[in-house]
Amino acid sequence: MDDTTKAALQAFYRLWKVTQAAAGDPHHPAAEESLSNAAHDANTKLRAAGLLGDEQRLVRLMRDAFPDYDPTV
């Protein structure tokens, strides 16, 4: 796996974790900014890796790289 793809997966994993945290505490003062920053970073890196819009491949790669990743959570 190349470095661009690794960076994209890490950014998407961060977005997933930030989303979970925000859902758990939506009134946290930093929730909106954290979500916005994580989404922007993930979008940019997924696009660079050619993964934006390729959900099946993205989910497969995420599960390989991060065993705790579960898109249904």
Structural description of this entry:
- It is built from three helices and no strands.
- The protein is mainly α and 73 residues long.
- It has one domain (3-65).
- The model has no long low-confidence stretch (mean pLDDT 94).
Number of DSSP strands? Answer: 0
**C-alpha end-to-end distance:** 26 Å
Low-confidence stretches: none
Tell me the β content.
Answer: under 5%
Structural class: mainly alpha
Shape: globular
Radius of gyration, whole Å:
12 Å
Largest sheet: none
Helix-strand pattern: HHH
List key phrases describing it.
3 helices; mainly alpha; 73 residues; globular
Per-chain topology:
Elements lengths: L2 H22 L6 H19 L5 H11 L8
Helix pairs in contact: 1-2
